[in-house]
Amino acid sequence: KVYLHPEHIVKLKNNKRPFPMTIEVDLTNHCNHRCSFCCWGEDIAEDKSTLDTKIIKDCISDMNDLGTKAICFTGGGEPMIHKDFYDILTFTKDKGLDCGLITNGSAITEDRCDDLLNNLEWIRVSISGGDAESYNKVQGKEHFDRVINNIKMLANKKIKKNKIIKIGIR
To answer: Residue 11: which H helix or E strand, with range?
Structure first.
């Protein structure tokens, strides 16, 4: 990113502190999985805090004004289950910011694929396990087939609509 934004180097050389180019936004602590490795796992069971949409939009506007180039929606929970996720995603893209998403992939639906394809630069789906048995043991939910099918569906729509979104699996 340093090569893409040399103005940040200039600011640093002039003893100024540039505002972050990319910011991660945790929309909610609520999650529909119970991953064995999750550092938030114990807190999620107790704390299902969700950021207010107006506050999120105000902060995104401020970040944009201060020079942020991209937002990554991730979280202590599953960002796609925030009640206004798609509204926030579209708002962020309309502000001219690049958007990324880290998700467990279980909340991807066919009727919202276009929203993902039109507003995201990239999506990374977390899959912990190479088969249903290992996945279910680690992720705490029997969503392996659903997530695999959601990734296939998104990838097929990407090809059909000739979109450049990067779809990754980790």
So the answer is: helix 6-13
Exposed, middle or buried, 75 (CB in 10 Å: 0-12/13-18/19+)?
A: buried
The whole-angstrom separation of Cα 52 and Cα 143 is: 28
| CA dist., res. 170 & res. 166, Å (int) | 13
Q: What is the mean pLDDT of residues 12-36?
A: 82
Q: Which residue has the tokens 């090569």?
A: 3
Higher pLDDT, 168 or 33: 168
List the end-to-end C-alpha distance of the chain, in Å, as a whole number: 22
Could you give the CA distance from residue 62 to residue 53 in angstroms, rounded to a whole number? 14
| Angle between the N-to-C axes of helices 85-94 and 53-66, in degrees from 0 to 180, rounded to the nearest 10 | 20
Q: Report the distance separating Cα 50 and Cα 170, nearest Å.
A: 25
Question: 3-class DSSP state for residue 28?
Answer: strand
